[in-house]
Write a structure and sequence with these properties.
Elements: H1 4-19, H2 38-47, E1 65-71, E2 76-83, H3 89-92, H4 101-111, E3 129-134, E4 145-152, H5 153-169, E5 174-182, H6 184-190, E6 196-203, H7 207-212, E7 219-225, H8 231-241, E8 244-251, H9 257-266, H10 270-277, E9 284-294, E10 297-304, H11 308-313
Antiparallel strand pairs: 1-2, 2-3, 4-10, 5-7, 5-8, 6-7, 8-9, 9-10
Length: 319
């Protein structure tokens, strides 16, 4: 067996070679292991490339997640996608989680790469993404008011501030975050935090691709923010649930909230649980795709029935 430290060093050298345009096999074996381990490097080490994510560069290929996403080349949402490479959003929040400089460069290198056949197929047309299934529009969507737009990080921050201010002032409104593509440790750590309450969490139905890619986090859940909601904490947790699509839900009708929770448990795609939320006439759905349009440019989808939400988003007086 190749010693684990040597395996890690060998992997890092391979990654460095790829990132710098060299042959992957150009390894300094003298610094890796003894001569008896040389023949094992190309086999067990590279054959277990997925385990690289749990060594010195845990997030070298990530955040790699299986969750709803958005195709910026096709301008449509996807029910499920697998993404890789860290977004530079929020001053490098995701990129800086990769401590090793070589792995960080490799992460950004693969973020801009397509899977074959590349631009010839809608599933692989976006770099850093493999889209599994398109999100299909349904007739119910025409019943609601819907805004789909691009937004800078700063404008998203202003919108969130206006919404949270309304929620904090209202005795009835409750604020939920629908989180997908996370691991069990994420929810375990949140359970100890007094700013939030975990309503439910479980495993996303993985299907065939999930079976092949078991190492990709696929846990989903509903998190409620307890009032008064701290804006900075809210934003940080929102970005922890990203990148890609994350859904914020504001509701006030206690009788309708259980329907929303049940619908999300059955399927976390917005097309499946949207109608259950908007049974509450005062509800708001705010979907944010962190850097899904471009670096620093978010995709936003806002769905509601009451026009007052437009005034709230624009920081205008409202009823």
């Amino acid at each position: 067996m190749l010693p684990s430290g040597a395996a890690t060093d060998a992997c890092i050298q391979v990654v460095s070679n790829i990132a710098n345009g060299k042959k992957w096999s150009d390894i300094d074996y003298g610094s890796v292991a003894t001569s008896g381990a040389i023949g094992a490097v190309a086999g067990p080490t590279l054959g277990k490339a997925g385990k690289l994510a749990t060594s010195k560069g845990k997030n070298a290929f990530g955040p790699a997640r299986k969750k709803p996403s958005y195709s910026k080349s096709g301008w449509f949402k996807t029910k499920n996608s697998i993404s890789w490479g860290a977004s530079p959003a929020k001053n490098g929040k995701y990129v800086n989680q990769i401590g090793n400089p070589t792995l960080r460069r490799f992460n950004q290198y693969i973020r801009n790469k397509h899977l074959p056949p590349g631009k010839l197929w809608w599933r692989t047309r976006d770099p850093g993404h493999f889209h599994i299934k398109k999100q299909i529009n349904i007739e119910d969507w025409k019943m609601y008011k819907r805004i789909q737009r691009e937004s800078s990080e700063k404008n998203t921050q202003i919108n969130l501030k206006n919404i949270l201010e309304k929620v904090n002032k209202s005795p009835n409104y409750r604020c939920f975050l629908c989180a997908t593509g996370l691991d069990l440790k994420f929810f375990e750590s949140l359970s100890k935090n007094h700013n939030v309450k975990i309503i439910w969490h479980g495993n996303l139905k993985k299907g065939f691709f999930g079976f092949l890619l078991k190492f990709i986090p696929s846990r989903i859940g509903i998190i409620e923010f307890l009032k008064p909601i701290d804006e900075d904490y809210f934003e940080n947790l929102l970005y922890d649930c990203g990148p890609s699509l994350t859904t914020i839900v504001i509701m006030s009708n206690e009788n309708k909230i259980p329907n929303f929770i049940s619908s999300f448990q059955n399927n976390p795609s917005l097309e499946n649980f949207e109608s259950s939320i908007l049974e509450d006439n005062n509800a708001l759905i705010y979907v944010i795709g962190v850097s899904d349009i471009d670096d620093g440019i978010n995709y936003e989808e806002i769905v509601f029935t009451q026009d007052a939400w437009l005034d709230i988003l624009n920081n205008k007086p409202h009823d």
